[in-house]
Each structure stands twice: as C-alpha cells, then as structure tokens.
Amino acid sequence: MKFSEQWLREWVSPQLDTQAMADQITMAGLEVDAVEAVAAAFSGVVVAEVLSKEKHPDADKLNVCTVDDGSGEPVQVVCGAPNVDVGQKFPLPR
User: Fold this and answer.
1) Is 92 helix (H, G, I), strand (E, B) or coil?
2) I need a labelling partner for 85 at 20 to 30 A (CA). Which of 16, 37, 43, 62 fits?
3) Can you list the alpha helix ranges (DSSP code H) found in the chain?
C-alpha cells in the first residue's frame, strides 16, 4: 500500500526525519519497501507578479503585462488569459 508522508503526519507528527520515521514504522511490524519522491526536482520556473496590464494594440483578446520575475528588471509578457489582473502571481518559465 502506498500513502504519503504528509497524510501520515496529519495523524501523528513525530519530530523525526523521513528515514527515521520509516525505520520506526518497520520496527513496529509494517514493512517499508521504499521511500519515493512524488515528483522530480522542480526548476526553471519562478513566481512572477503582474505589475501592470494593458490591452494589446494589435489583438482584441490579448493583454500586454509588465511582470516582476525577481530579476530586478520588469519583463513584458503577452497574455491571453481574460482573468489576469494587477497584483496576481503566476508561474513563469525562465
């Protein structure tokens, strides 16, 4: 049976790291075959915040947004989402 460590820690939250908790579960009589990550390491994406939004001059359904991606320089992004607004944050590939 597979279950997440996060789910287990909702019920009991010992001050143990992942491997120590797996060892204790095994010692209690429930064999732990493996401890696996849910997903691979996440990279190449940052959280960006919309600073301004203007209608695209050549398209009815597009917006030109100025966003802060943490690099220090504002970046312009053409966006087709109708619900984008100033102050919202979204994932931005780098």
Assistant:
1) strand
2) 43
3) 5-11, 18-27
Residue 37 pLDDT level (bands cut at 50, 70, 90):
confident
Cβ contacts of residue 62 below 8 Å, gap of 6+?
A: 55, 56, 78, 79, 80
CA distance to 11, 36, 55, 68, 87, per residue, from 52 (Å): 44, 42, 10, 10, 8
User: Which residues are CB-neighbours of 26 under 8 A, at least 6 positions away?
Assistant: 32
Three-state DSSP state, 70: coil
Using CA atoms, how far apart are residues 59 and 66, in angstroms rounded to an integer? Answer: 17
